[in-house]
Design goal:
Layout: H1 17-48, H2 60-90, H3 96-130, H4 132-156
């Protein structure tokens, strides 16, 4: 009976270190390609919002929520774009391990800020439509859903020792 080939810690048979790094970098960049358009659309919305007529109606809480949302979106964009810039600057420098570690952390931080920005945008739109009480309930519920689906669920999976499922 033949035994299966040895697995590297990621569960890929006979994958060399440099192959794993290339694959992981490609996977990360593809994930960022999915997230970045959402950030840019939200950022565009946040940029034009102050120029609308109803923006003048915002009170103190809404202005604070707008500014938090605006800054969260801007910083999320910076963090999510950074891995591509890092890759261009460090291209062929033989430092993909560090690049992946930093890019992974930047992507997670950028996504966390995106979740704050989504909650803030939901709050602002809901406030304009239904008032502050409903807006707070909807925004907190929406933010809780994002945190649950994006962060809690994957963090709660049991550790498989770095191996992929069979």
């Amino acid at each position: 009976m033949e035994s299966s080939p040895p697995l590297d810690p990621t569960g890929h048979a006979d994958e060399l270190h440099w192959q794993r790094l290339n694959r992981e970098l490609l996977e990360l960049m593809n994930e960022i390609r999915i997230t970045l358009p959402a950030v840019m659309v939200l950022f565009s919305f946040m940029l034009i919002l102050p120029f609308s007529n109803r923006f003048k109606e915002l009170g103190g809480i809404e202005e604070a929520a707008y500014y938090l949302t605006f800054i969260s979106t801007a910083v999320a964009a910076v963090l999510l774009i950074a891995p591509s810039i890092h890759h261009r600057i460090r291209f062929r420098q033989g430092d993909k391990d560090r690049l992946l570690l930093v890019a992974n952390n930047l992507t997670i931080a950028g996504t966390m800020l995106l979740s704050v920005a989504i909650g803030g945008a939901v709050f602002l739109v809901s406030d304009m439509l239904f008032g502050i009480t409903i807006a707070a309930i909807v925004a907190v519920s929406g933010l809780a859903l994002v945190v649950l689906v994006w962060f809690v669920i994957p963090a709660s999976w049991p550790d498989r020792g770095g191996r992929s499922p069979k």
